[in-house]
Amino acid sequence: MRKLLIGLVVLALIAFAAWRLWGGVEDYGAARIEEELVSRGVPQPVAACMGERMASRLSPLQLRKLERLRPQDGETQIPASMGELMTRIRRIDDPEMVEVTISSAATCAFSAG
Fold first, then answer.
1. What is the mean pLDDT of the chain?
2. Residues ≥6 apart with Cβ < 8 Å to 46
């Protein structure tokens, strides 16, 4: 019984390592980003492009920080002005993340159009 359990744990670790090696984490992150962007009104092709770019360029911790862009009390779902958008971006407090997010949005919006 003990050998079977050890074998299953080793097999699970090998499967997880293979999944990570062949982009499983990035694919999952890209899908989550895409889903969130689409729910916020971003067109699906733009959201898919942004999800792929952001998942490949940002760490999982940085991706979690993106949740700070969500509206807080008194804010609309989608920023109503450039000032409100900048306020949300400043909450992130990570220049690399801001750069990747903005460049992804610009690149994907122009390539989709």
1. 76
2. 37, 105, 108, 109, 112
